[in-house]
Amino acid sequence: RDRALVNGMSSVLQSTLMVFLVAIVAGTAPLRVWDAFAAVLLYLAGTVLYVKTVIRERGSRPYLVTSVAYHAGALCVAALLAPVLALPFGWFLIRAVAVPRRTPPVAVVGMLEIAGSVALVLAVR
Questions:
Q1: What is the pTM assigned to this prediction?
Q2: pLDDT band at 4 (very low <50, low <70, confident <90, very high)
């Protein structure tokens, strides 16, 4: 079941571990990028939940509640990591609440994710 939640989260974790690999290749100690790792992990895990609420599990109240609760918690954790992260994570929370109430085309969901990724990269740099 390649679209299962556990598979999505496993993929997120494996992908996010690349942050440490890139640090090593760049000659930076992996401990210096743990906050970037945490921010990317928070974002991508939230994206798995959010995308399910607008595509695969559209209309599922449990998924919506879980997604919104996750994003609220992620905002708190991200703001503790670095105050500047409150901006993109605040947007991610608003997106998790507002977008599932509509039925956006998949292309719009994708464009919002691209914008979110760019916002996260700018905040993490």
A1: 0.88
A2: confident
d(CA 92, CA 85): 11
Compute CA distances 102 → 3, 33, 59, 82, 114, whole Å: 22, 37, 10, 32, 19
Q: How far apart are CA 20 and CA 27, in angstroms?
A: 11
Give me the pLDDT at residue 59, please: 85
Closest by CA position to 33, among listed 46, 21, 45: 21
- Tokens 């449990």: give the residue: 62
Reading the block at residue 53, the tokens are: 């609420």
Per-residue pLDDT band for 2 (boundaries 50, 70, 90) equals low
